């Protein structure tokens, strides 16, 4: 019976309102704070990742590949890095030529609020701010595209 | 409702009653010479009498002791099965469980997975099983307990002679004096029997409360205990998290909704042999190759975020309390206790380098700089025209398939790629540095060398809250009271019936420990002419 704990439950699950947060955008020239609720009306792919996470490295190019097309269709990709230092994120983004917004959760507040355990963890949020899908682990190109289609605003 | 009218006193008894509630006449005329079944004092038990509606059938199912024992046995067996392979929560979160169990444990692993044993303890059918045990305990207690309570509360003092004759311990006394009877009753009182009298009939009773101990009070305790374990599902009641915090760093405390933060001011790690007082341990320490830890402590400060901003905004921290977290002395905040639970010593915090000519034997510094590993700059500019760029930084460097990469977030094994720019450098010179490595990109004119470093310790803190413990404690305590009540006391009754013709009928009953009762009876008849009661069960067997 001692194994019966609430640990397994996600803090933000499918069907929930995605908790609002704001984080500093990094690897950008202007001082930009991005707030999730400001993106209401757009579909949002919220990806938690880190530079030291192998599967994250694999799916990043897929995200980059689909980003321009789906940005046109009203979807924003937010990649929240849980790395300790901004420098490693900068190194990584420059190496992979990523163009979507990269946010830095330096104090792990959003990580804690969403109860993220494995990396990557990806939330697909519709235009009303409702979580449509939550994916633990790596995404393939096909799966990623399928999920993006689900959150395309009408 | 069907009733059974007593042929002697005319009292209408509920169907299923075996001993008349009013006069105590046995209602089962067929077995005249057999001993009376005194279970539940002959009262009607719901599950034994009604079996018509679906409610009756459900009630009867759960009130069966056989079913109860079967349910407990099944729960024990499946609980054991669930421990054969690790539960899903203990396998890596990124692997596919369907493949993981098959690949790791073969065909049995696949069966284990397909039966759902990998998520046993939170599966709906396991919960139903546990709930059924709870219901069974509850219903069986009410089914037996309520009629028994009523029967004993309203028990008659005057009993039918057949009631006495068919008790296990019985005697008929012919020649006795009034003194003998008085003496007998006085003795009973001395043995703390409660005496009730009606028309010369006497009922002496003691220890009735022990009847509630065994099956009823301890069942209440068990049910409270079960509820307590279920409350672990409620995040408000139970928290068990882990948190790493580095010296000088402030980290959010899990499960506080980002309201509380903890800062480690210092981690103290002492080993035996550092103090003079430790001299007495010298011999023991010599037998140990590694240092023996003596004291772990995190000097911590707890803050509350008083800003009303959205998650992720810079917190506005106000100090709540500060103190040392020692293994069994947690720091408590907001109902949570932070325990000292782990540590990592000497994680790199900063590294200092100097730039010198590669050919210079003296390695005289042209430029010196320090890289703060918690927040490294990407560029270091010097007045003498040199500039060093930190091109790549790997906190926990490892070479994977020829590709340098970091395997964690923490500077355990830092690796750097520096680009040196200078007045006499045409383009730039690159060097790679890591612990024990200093690799120039080519025929470099300049070299970067490590001059110094600083380290810090990391504290592992367990964040714990368990409001279910008092519930478990109360449940266990009530259970124990029930056990003690039922084990150390017995419900003993002695009936005296003036049988007429100058004789007395005496019968004794106890719910357990018949030997103790006969020993007591021997003492009670001491000094009277009364004869010892006979064990009719044994007599019948002979």
Describe it for me?
- The complex is a heterodimer of chains A (154) and B (542).
- The N terminus of chain A is likely disordered.
- Chain A has 4 helices and 7 strands.
- Chain A is α/β, with parallel strands linked by helices and 154 residues long.
- In chain A, strand 3, helix 1 and strand 4 form a beta-alpha-beta unit.
- Chain A has one domain: Glutaredoxin (3-Layer(aba) Sandwich), CATH 3.40.30.10.
- Chain A is globular and about 40 Å long.
- Chain B is an alpha+beta fold and 542 residues long.
- Chain B has 6 domains: 31 residues; 108 residues; 106 residues, 2-Layer Sandwich (TATA-Binding Protein); 38 residues, no CATH class; 115 residues, no CATH class; 106 residues, no CATH class.
- In chain B, 30% of the residues lie in helices and 32% in strands.
- Chain B has a 6-stranded antiparallel sheet with strand order 4-5-22-23-3-24. In chain B, strands 6, 11, 12, 13 and 21 form a 5-stranded antiparallel sheet that branches.
- In chain B, helix 2 crosses helix 5 and helix 8 packs antiparallel against helix 10.
- In chain B, 29% of the residues are buried.
- The chains are: A alpha/beta (154), B alpha+beta (542).
- At the A-B interface, helix 2 and helix 3 of A face strand 7 and strand 15 of B.
Outline the secondary-structure elements.
The complex is a heterodimer of chains A (154) and B (542).
Chain A: E1 22-26, E2 33-35, E3 43-49, H1 54-72, E4 75-81, H2 86-96, E5 102-104, H3 109-114, E6 121-125, E7 131-136, H4 141-150
Parallel strand pairs in A: 3-4, 4-5
Antiparallel strand pairs in A: 1-2, 1-5, 3-6, 6-7
Helix pairs in contact in A: 1-4
Chain B: E1 3-5, E2 12-14, H1 46-49, H2 54-63, H3 65-81, H4 97-114, H5 124-153, H6 161-165, E3 169-173, H7 178-190, E4 194-198, E5 201-206, H8 210-230, E6 238-246, E7 250-252, E8 260-271, H9 282-286, E9 293-305, E10 317-326, E11 331-333, E12 336-357, E13 367-372, E14 379-381, E15 387-394, E16 397-400, E17 403-406, E18 415-421, E19 429-434, E20 437-440, E21 446-466, H10 468-488, E22 492-500, E23 503-510, H11 514-524, E24 534-535, H12 536-541
Antiparallel strand pairs in B: 1-2, 3-23, 3-24, 4-5, 5-22, 6-21, 7-8, 8-9, 9-10, 11-12, 12-13, 12-21, 14-15, 15-18, 16-17, 18-19, 19-20, 22-23
């Amino acid at each position: 019976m001692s194994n019966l704990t609430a640990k397994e439950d996600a803090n933000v699950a499918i069907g929930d309102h995605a908790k609002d947060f704001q984080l500093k955008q990094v690897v950008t020239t202007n001082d930009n704070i991005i707030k999730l609720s400001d993106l209401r009306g757009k579909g949002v792919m919220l990806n938690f990742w880190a530079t030291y996470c192998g599967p994250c490295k694999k799916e990043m190019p897929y995200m980059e590949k689909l980003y321009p097309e789906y940005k046109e269709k009203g979807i924003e990709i937010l990649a929240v890095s849980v790395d300790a230092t901004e420098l490693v994120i900068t190194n990584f983004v420059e190496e992979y030529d990523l163009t979507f917004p990269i946010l830095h959760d330096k104090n792990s507040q959003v990580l804690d609020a969403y109860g993220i355990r494995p990396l990557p963890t990806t939330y697909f949020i519709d235009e009303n701010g409702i979580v449509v899908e939550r994916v633990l682990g790596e995404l393939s190109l096909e799966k990623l595209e399928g999920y993006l289609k689900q959150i395309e605003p009408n | 409702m069907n009733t059974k009218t007593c042929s002697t006193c005319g009292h209408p008894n509920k169907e299923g009653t075996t001993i008349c509630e009013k006069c105590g006449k046995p209602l089962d005329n067929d077995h005249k010479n057999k001993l009376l079944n005194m279970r539940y004092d002959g009262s009607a038990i719901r599950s034994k009498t009604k079996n018509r509606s679906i409610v009756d059938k459900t009630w009867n199912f759960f009130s069966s002791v056989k079913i109860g024992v079967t349910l407990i046995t099944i729960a024990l067996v499946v609980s054991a099965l669930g421990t054969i392979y690790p539960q899903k929560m203990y396998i890596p979160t990124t692997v596919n469980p369907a493949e993981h169990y098959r690949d790791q444990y073969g065909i049995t692993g696949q069966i284990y997975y397909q039966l759902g044993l990998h998520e046993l303890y939170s599966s709906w059918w396991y919960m139903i099983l546990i709930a059924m045990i709870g219901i069974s305990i509850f219903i069986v207690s009410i089914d037996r307990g309520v009629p028994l309570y009523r029967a004993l509360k309203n028990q008659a003092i005057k009993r039918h002679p057949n009631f006495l004759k068919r008790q296990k311990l019985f005697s008929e006394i012919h020649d006795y004096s009034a003194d003998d009877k008085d003496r007998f009753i006085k003795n009973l009182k001395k043995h703390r029997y409660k005496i009730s009298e009606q028309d010369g009939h006497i009922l002496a009773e003691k220890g009735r409360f022990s009847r509630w101990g065994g099956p009823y009070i301890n069942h209440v305790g068990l049910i409270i205990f079960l509820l307590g374990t279920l409350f672990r599902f409620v995040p408000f009641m139970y928290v068990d998290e882990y948190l790493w915090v580095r010296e000088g760093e402030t980290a959010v405390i899990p499960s506080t909704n980002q309201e509380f933060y903890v800062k480690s001011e210092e981690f103290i790690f002492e080993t035996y042999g550092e103090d003079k007082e430790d001299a007495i341990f010298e011999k023991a320490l010599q037998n140990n190759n590694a240092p023996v830890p003596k004291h772990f402590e995190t000097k911590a400060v707890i803050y509350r975020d008083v800003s009303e901003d959205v998650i992720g905004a810079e917190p506005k921290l106000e100090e709540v309390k500060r103190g040392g977290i020692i293994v069994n002395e947690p720091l408590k905040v907001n109902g949570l206790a932070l325990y000292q639970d782990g540590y990592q010593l000497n994680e790199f915090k900063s590294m200092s380098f100097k730039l010198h000519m590669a050919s210079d034997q003296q390695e005289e510094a042209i430029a010196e700089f320090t890289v703060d590993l918690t927040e490294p700059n990407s560029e270091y500019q010097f007045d003498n025209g040199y500039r060093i760029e930190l091109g790549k930084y790997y906190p926990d460097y490892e070479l994977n398939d020829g590709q340098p990469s970091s395997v964690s977030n923490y500077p355990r094994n830092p690796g750097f790629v520096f680009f040196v720019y200078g007045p006499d450098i045409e383009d730039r010179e690159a060097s790679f540095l890591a612990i024990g490595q200093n690799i120039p990109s080519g025929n470099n004119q300049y070299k970067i060398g490590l001059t110094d470093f600083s380290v810090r310790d990391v504290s592992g803190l367990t964040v714990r809250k368990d409001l279910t413990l008092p519930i478990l404690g109360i449940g266990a305590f009530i259970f124990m009271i029930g056990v003690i009540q039922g084990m150390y006391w017995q419900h003993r009754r002695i009936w005296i019936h003036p049988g007429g013709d100058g004789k007395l009928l005496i019968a004794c009953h106890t719910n357990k420990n018949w030997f103790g009762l006969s020993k007591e009876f021997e003492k009670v008849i001491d000094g009277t002419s009364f004869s010892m009661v006979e064990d009719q069960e044994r007599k019948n067997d002979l």
